[in-house]
């Protein structure tokens, strides 16, 4: 835990440093450090997203053959597993997106550490724009971040429109429920992170259109 505490303290120090550089506003420090960390991680997250999209496309193309194997070897699980593995090897496709999983394992501690640092800093309170105290919930910020989260999903989603809108609606409900009782400082973190996620989704969508 010593290393973890040191990592969180480093992020807190960065938030305080940016706060002092920008007039003492903890909210400004939270937004600045969140943007810096997310932008620094953007090349990796873009690569992981593209790997995931490529894997999904490969699995989509293999679906007819996989369905055929399931039909042919129904009731013979050993033979089905053998033929399925042979199909994956022949097509050069992994049954699991291992590269994406490994990349996620790298990102999770970083984002969790940043979230922990933000929560501790937000507890100190202070003003930011219209928010009187970032240690308390702010309804307007919650509504704005909820809309941003939904927009990010709509821009980045693939597949049928009905699924896209359903995902956006569910995400909006979950985001609102979580943030409406959280300190506004956490909402600032969520919103700043959402802006980078929206940029990421737009870049991936643009790359898909070009290809």
Number of structurally distinct domains: 1
Bulk shape: elongated
User: How many helices does DSSP assign?
Assistant: 7
- List low-pLDDT spans: none
% residues in beta strands:
under 5%
Mind describing the biggest β-sheet?
Answer: none
What does this structure look like?
This protein is an all-alpha fold. It has one domain (2-210). It is 81% helix and 0% strand. It is built from seven helices and no strands. The chain has helices at residues 2-21, 26-72, 77-91, 98-122, 139-156, 161-179, 184-210. Helix 1 (2-21) crosses helix 4 and helix 4 runs antiparallel to helix 7 (184-210).
Task: Give a short synopsis of this structure.
The protein has 211 residues and is mostly helical.
List keywords for this structure.
0% strand, mainly alpha
Topology:
Blueprint: H1 2-21, H2 26-72, H3 77-91, H4 98-122, H5 139-156, H6 161-179, H7 184-210
Helix pairs in contact: 1-2, 1-4, 2-3, 2-4, 2-7, 4-7, 5-6, 5-7
């Amino acid at each position: 835990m010593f290393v973890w505490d040191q990592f969180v303290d480093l992020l807190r120090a960065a938030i305080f440093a940016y706060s002092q550089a920008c007039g003492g506003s903890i909210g400004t420090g939270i937004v600045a450090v969140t943007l810096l960390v997310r932008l620094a991680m953007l090349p990796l997250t873009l690569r992981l997203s593209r790997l995931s999209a490529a894997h999904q496309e490969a699995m989509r193309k293999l679906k007819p053959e996989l369905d055929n194997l399931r039909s042919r070897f129904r009731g013979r699980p050993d033979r089905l597993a053998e033929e399925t593995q042979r199909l994956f090897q022949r097509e050069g496709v992994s049954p699991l997106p291992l590269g994406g999983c490994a990349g996620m394992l790298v990102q999770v501690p970083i984002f969790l550490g940043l979230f922990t640092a933000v929560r501790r800093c937000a507890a100190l309170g202070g003003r930011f724009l219209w928010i009187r105290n970032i240690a308390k919930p702010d309804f307007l910020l919650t509504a704005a971040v909820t809309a941003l989260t939904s927009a990010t999903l709509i821009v980045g989603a693939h597949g049928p429109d009905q699924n896209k809108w359903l995902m956006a609606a569910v995400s909006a409900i979950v985001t609102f429920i979580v943030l409406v009782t959280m300190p506004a400082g956490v909402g600032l973190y969520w919103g700043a992170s959402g802006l980078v996620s929206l940029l990421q989704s737009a870049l991936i969508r643009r790359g898909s259109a070009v290809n």
